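Deliverable D5.2: sample structural annotation.
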Amino acid sequence: MDNRPDAIRVMVVDDEAGIREGSERILKRIGFTVSQASRGDDALLRMPAEQPAIVLLDLKMPGIDGMEVLGRIREMDTDILVIVITGYATVETAIEAMKQGAYDFIPKPFEPDQLRIVVNRAAEKIRLTRETTALEQARRRTLTDLDTEKSRISTILHSLPDGVVVTNTAGRVVLINPAARQMLGLAQNTGPGAAIAEYVPDQGLCTLIQDISKGRFIDYEDIPIHEFTTNDERFLLARGQPVLGERRECLGAVINLSDVTAMKVIDRLKSEFVAKVSHELRSPLATIHEQLAKVMRDMMDVASESDRYILARAKEKTHGLISMIGDLLDLSRIEEGLICRESEPVQVETLVGNVVAFLKTRAEGKGQTISMLPPDQALPPINADPVALESIFGNLIANAINYTPDGGTIRVAVDQAGINLRVKVSDTGFGIEEKYLSKIFDRFYRVKNDKTRLITGTGLGLPIVKQLVDSLGGFIDVESTPGSGSTFTVLLPVSGQGAAA
């Protein structure tokens, strides 16, 4: 709003030219815009166009007198402030004018200071009135915007293809959109208000939502993702986040539900295809590999060096294909949940020691030193599938041997770290550049450079390790320095809660 005095127009209505001109000079000096009228009827005709905010009105004028002009102004615009100029009238006349709506009065003759005080007081009232009106309009706009925003949010939530459920700190549903009702098999008229267990059929998800709602995951960036199956055999994926207030206090939880049934079907078909193709290829490749080995034995004395090299490379490549088929079958079994199902108490340090002993011959063939550091304390067993554990540590140690040059060192250590058992596999090998660390667990990915290009492999060993560790509820990490070696760290829960997943 413009609060300058020149934003307020004043009209002086008086039949005395001296009063009009004197008042105009005084008011213009303090920034008002001033116009004059010598008669009441002339003033009334000009007011709609000039729109004065303040009128200085003489009560005694020829033609229409001041009291009638006052009444007409009040009918025209009640916001115009009329200051009555009284000269010959009595105080009673001024009081009567005030009763009929005049804002103030000033008696003739008046001093410039008197006029400035009265008009400034009226101008201040106008400014305050304008500010109040503007604030009220702003408040109404804000309320309208809030209502519009609420309507927009509601429309967005109702049109989302994913399900959305919001709970309060008590775990009671305060909002649920149509997609969530449809995914959970609820009637479309199902409203909020009940406990989350009344809507969600999976106890594990209900417990997770309760924990998020109560603020147990405020500072967590990796809140667990929960997958479950509904009564109509639909696969749903649930992701939850706490709803935080201005002071980071937990106000409840918001849960996003995604239907991953189609993805599950595709994964199953892919696994079935890979398994079928792998089975069909394994036998002929094994036969080719055996025949190549026989040819190499029979021709060892008569074949040229070039022929022997070609046969050796062919045998090496068929062996690599057979290994890749085995890895693909392992991945299929992991995805189908056929591995990590037979859990039993396992002493990890004993199992890892056996793997080290088994692969020691391979390491010594390259002139490498491989050792296992004994734990400094007795370690508790973990509840897991021993076949899965052998695959994890067999792949990691074999990987260390393959990517460590002749004469290098591989060290394996097992200890306890809080509620987890920790296994570290360190080597003095070629190392991995930092830009590749995020990719080494991707299927078929292999770091290839001048040092590693002759190393055979499928690019499936580390993906298998990652999936098995995840299936056991564990965690795997890698630290590496190019030219100095790598350290893979595996954490497995002592409780073994993830073992049957």
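Annotation notes: The longest strand covers residues 235-244. The mean pLDDT is 81.
The annotation will be released with the project's public dataset once the embargo ends.
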